[in-house]
Write a structure and sequence with these properties.
Helices cover about 30% and strands about 25% of the residues. This is Glycosyltransferase 2-like domain-containing protein.
Length: about 220
């Protein structure tokens, strides 16, 4: 049987973009996935839109938190529910290219690594490309990650079978994803990067991604 990928997506007032994020997952050439959407207290009608997908695609699930708890807690709730061998992350305003999962899974099998990542594009609110984050190093050690975070969360994929366990994001104010990557490679593993664009990071003033830096929990 093909290995399943669990895709973790926190939602916080993302009604304008969540449909595009979900469709970018549905358009994957690799069909063996589950998408776990975690509502972190949205008030903008995002969840009404999400429910239209739940009725038509059994691979999509929704978890609702009782109150806003921030992206790390939301992602961790998704990880707890995950059934897949592989865990990947996609914020509700970002996108994946269609071959993202297929190419990354093949890459991980070849390199025998528990953590991989890729290059990605930056897009504006309208979806126009405004930049690109390429990979300068394709092999990242613990020492490398201590200096800077080389891994974009929307591109990361974790092999829980390789690790022998699920691992969670630390409940800290900033850089929770960086904390998780550090925990993984600190065990002596190497993170491998694909210098190919497989995702698109949306830059907007009030995005999930910007809010992780700028406001309250989402920083």
């Amino acid at each position: 049987m093909p290995e399943f990928v669990s895709i973790i997506t926190p939602i916080y007032n993302s009604g304008k973009y969540i449909e595009c994020a979900i469709k970018s997952v549905q358009h994957q050439t690799y069909p063996y996935w589950e998408m776990i959407l975690i509502d972190d207290g949205s008030t903008d009608g995002s969840i009404d839109l999400v429910r239209t997908f739940l009725d038509n695609d059994e691979r999509i699930q929704l978890i609702s938190l009782q109150k806003n708890q921030g992206p790390a807690k939301a992602r961790n709730e998704g990880i707890k529910m995950a059934c897949g061998r592989y865990i990947a992350f996609l914020d509700s305003d970002d996108l994946w290219l269609p071959e993202k999962l297929e190419k990354q899974l093949k890459f991980m099998n070849v390199n025998n690594s528990p953590l991989s990542f890729s290059a990605y594009q930056k897009i504006d609110e309208n979806g126009d490309i405004i930049g690109q984050i390429s990979i300068k190093k394709t092999k990242i050690s613990y020492a490398d990650l201590l200096k800077t975070n080389h891994i974009g969360c929307l591109t990361a994929m974790i092999d829980t079978k390789f690790l022998g366990e699920k691992m969670y994001m630390p409940l800290i104010k900033k850089r929770q994803d960086h904390g998780l990557w550090l925990s993984i490679v600190k065990k002596g593993y190497t993170a491998f990067g694909i210098n190919e664009v497989l995702a698109q990071y949306r830059c907007r003033q009030h995005s999930i991604s910007h809010a992780k830096i700028n406001i309250f929990y989402y920083q």
